[in-house]
Amino acid sequence: MRRATTIAVALAVVAAAGCTSDPRYVDPNDPIEVNAPGTTDTGEATTTIDLPIRLEKDTERTERDALAAELGVEVPYVKAKDLHIEIEWSLENLSDQQGEATILVNGATEYAEYIPSNFVIDPERDPEPPSLMGGIPMILQPGEVKTGVFREDQVYEASVDLELMYRANYNPFAAVLEINKGFTEIIDTANQLVPKDVFASMVRFDFILRGTTDVVMKYDIRVRDERGILHDKLLNPDDPGELTTFSPVVIQPPMMTP
Amino acid sequence: MKLRTRINQLVALALPMALAVALASTEAEARPASKGIYTEAGLGAAAFVGKKHRYSQIGPAFDLRAGYDLFSWFSIGLHLGSSSHEALVPPPPQGEIYQLYTAHAEGRLGFLWHNVGLFVNGGAGFTMISTNVLEKVNVLDPGEKYTFSMTAGGGIEYQLVNRHHAIGIAGRWTALPQFAQMTFITAGAYFRYTY
């Protein structure tokens, strides 16, 4: 008996170590560059990446529909609690002069997409709302490489901000500039309670790089996938149809409460 | 002449005595050691060698073994191992850690002389990598997580007075053919309990 117990404990220790939600790295290998020699860009470059989410299973869909009927609110396929997302980036100043660079990150849940410039109706009067993440200028010496991350809690905060804008008509300034990641529920526009367990996760990321010199930005997205909803081959499925395509609505100013 | 005779007599006496002592020592029995089901736990370090070594930092390694001594000199068993490494890929990402988990069926050939033993072991099985961070440097293909793996090694064991207990130091070489032919070596100390 003692032998069996010892062996069982030993196997359990190793098995447990292998069962935690290990990170996966979604690397589009898609660097963006501004002010490259021979180009006449405006010092701004953009790129977008959609997380490679596998197709929803029928059983998952059935459970989700049942939960939506029970709560009386929309229940997303990709919930904020399903994915712990971190964005890792590097900036390199390729020029021989000191420069300044800024990274801005926006994006979408499966329901709603946030584009700050859409809130600028009159460019002379309306300041552009802040981005969901980033926006801090960084000085880069010639040849310098800087690295950094948008942490899991920052990306979660961005998901909650998007939910507040979409479900509760929050003004983007209020949603982004306040810390909302501690919310345990949202009261939506139909006066229904949306518990945090059904907050939608960001599934799309829009990157904007602004720079004053020749700067290149590389990035990848680190995901701890609690439910196994990332595609096994990530951005390289055998058939693109194996990935879920979301069609979020773009959040527009008229949706905002005064 | 007299002195020479005395030396010859001494040599004639000493040689058989030395031979007797030598024979007696080689015939000394090994320290009593249990034989049967065994378990083993080890701790050490693992480092990659070969072309791909630059993508992974040396890291701690942990091993568990369990098996059966078919003879006093030959055992079969299961080996579960894990090691943690920092990925040294071009950033981003930076400072990320991954783990390797191995499960091997193993054979072990060893001899105990007095209280010291020597052994060699080898096996085959599979290895799992915890993340796809090495995909960036083409060590992994998209979606690849498992590889066939094989290992070979050896070590020195010291049989403690208690017949169930032994300690030792061991090293092994492991090949991961499907992970771009990566190979690593592991060295460490272990404690072995034979029931």
How does this model look, in words?
The complex is a heterodimer of chains A (258) and B (195). With 258 residues, chain A is of the alpha+beta class. Chain A has four helices and 14 strands. Chain A has one domain (24-255). In chain A, the strands form three sheets. In chain A, strands 3, 5, 6, 7, 8, 12 and 14 form a seven-stranded mixed sheet that branches. In chain A, strands 1, 2, 4, 9 and 13 form a five-stranded antiparallel sheet that branches. The longest helix of chain A is centred in the N-terminal third of the chain and has 17 residues, at 2-18. Chain A is globular. The mean pLDDT of chain A is 91. Chain B has an eight-stranded antiparallel barrel. In chain B, strand 2 (59-71) and strand 3 form a beta hairpin. The A-B interface holds A 3, 6-7, 10-11, 13-14, 17-18, 22-25, 27, 29, 88-90, 145, 147, 149, 218-220, 222, 232-236 and B 37, 39, 41, 64, 66, 80, 82, 91-94, 96, 98-99, 101, 128, 130-133, 135-136, 142-143, 195.
- Known CATH architecture of chain B: Beta Barrel
Biggest interface, and residues per chain?
A-B, 30 and 25 residues
Helix content of chain B: 10-25%
Number of structurally distinct domains of chain A: 1
CATH topology of chain B: Porin
Could you tell me the number of beta strands of chain A?
A: 14
Number of H/I helices of chain B: 1
Computed CA radius of gyration of chain A, to the nearest angstrom: 21 Å
Helix vs. strand class of chain B: mainly beta
Please state the average pLDDT score of chain A.
91
Shape designation of chain A: globular
Strand content of chain A is 25-35%
Envelope shape of chain B = elongated
Low-confidence stretches of chain A: none
Strand order of the largest sheet of chain B: 1-2-3-4-5-6-7-8
* Mean pLDDT across residues of chain B: 89
Share in helix of chain A: 10-25%
